[in-house]
Structure formats: structure tokens, C-alpha cells
Amino acid sequence: MARVLIIGASKGIGLETVQRALAAGHTVRAFARTPVRLVGADTSRLEVVKGNALKTEDVEAALDRVDVVIQTLGIGLGDMLGPVQLFSKSTRVLLPAMEAKRVRRLIAVTGFGAGDSKSSISFLQYIPFRLVFGRAYDDKDIQEKLIKASSLDWTIARPGILTNGHRLGTYRVLTEPQDWHNGTISRADVADFLVQQITDRSHVRKTPVLVY
């Protein structure tokens, strides 16, 4: 079992990942700016750390005695109306901190449409995608470039359209560019994939798209 730091652990994919990692038997350090509230989970192996992913001292402290980092930061729709820099700035803090602490395994969440998966967006989806998510995904592009340029053992997960559905375990992991396409997937199933990557190294230095 691993000691896992989950960044952005208070809601969404991050909160689902905390619960899934605990269920899988790992020891979890949940890092967030707001309290982490779990329902029905065994918290005996959970440490909640309040911190800012943009502050080097907070991130370095959270990395102490950690084996794996799962980066699950997200923003609300309202935050997409202005400039978005959270993903790139937090990654610029995280990568050198991981190097300094000699933590090699990084599992990060971006999304379908980030990096080279952008060319797989259909013509009909591209304009609304850019109008709503353009600023965020421009920053996710930078985030992915930073991660790929690092020497870490990284995996970048690119989920499709997120839902609040249950974990089904029937999602597809699309690793080849010719197979990439958009679709839906629950946050719980994204968390399932992320937790599997703690011990599964078959997707190291890969950027799989996750959809049903």
C-alpha cells in the first residue's frame, strides 16, 4: 500500500479519489484549501492538510514521506470567465517540489481537449468548447507541457464530460490518438482509474482519454 498525496481533495474528482484510495487500502493525505468531508469512509488512514497549491512551502510540507501524488485541481464555471492560471502555476510549484523531495510518481487530471487531444474534438463541439472552456484548457495545455518536460514518472488522465454518476467500472481507457473522442464519464470512475495508477505502471508517460 502506498502513501498518497491528493491535491485538490475537497470536492469533485479529488474527493472521490480520496474515498476510492482509502477503500483500496492506501494511506491518504488530502490537501485542500477547504475542509474535506467524507461520508461513510474509513478515515483511520486519512490525514487532512489545509494548504494552498500555489505556495511552495505548503506543497513541500505536504510531500513529506509521500510515495505518489495525484493532482486533481479544478475550477468552477464562474472562474473560467477571466484569466485562468491555476493549473500551470500550481504545476510550476509542484514539479520542483517533487524533485526536491524525490517523489517520482505523478498522476494528473486535465481533460479531453487538452494538449494534442484538442485535434480530436469534433467540428460541431469545437466552437462551444472554446467559448466555455477555452481559457481553462489553454492553461491545461501549459500544465501538460510542464509535466511532460519533467523527469517524473507521470500519467496524465484526460476524462471526457464529467457526471456525478456512480462508479461503474465500465469506462474505456483510450491510449491511441486515432481512438480519442469525447464522451461522458463519472467523477467516481475517473477516481477509480486514478487510484489504479498508484500501482499500475502501464500508463506511465501516457495521456489516456477516459470515456464510457
From TrEMBL:
SUPFAM superfamilies for this protein: NAD(P)-binding Rossmann-fold domains
Source domain of life: Bacteria
Domain called NAD(P)-binding: residue spans: 8-200
Molecular function as annotated in GO: biliverdin reductase [NAD(P)H] activity; riboflavin reductase (NADPH) activity
Gene3D superfamilies linked: NAD(P)-binding Rossmann-like Domain
A Pfam entry, by short name: NAD_binding_10
Protein name: NAD(P)H-binding protein
Species of origin: Rhodoplanes serenus
Lineage of source species: Bacteria, Pseudomonadati, Pseudomonadota, Alphaproteobacteria, Hyphomicrobiales
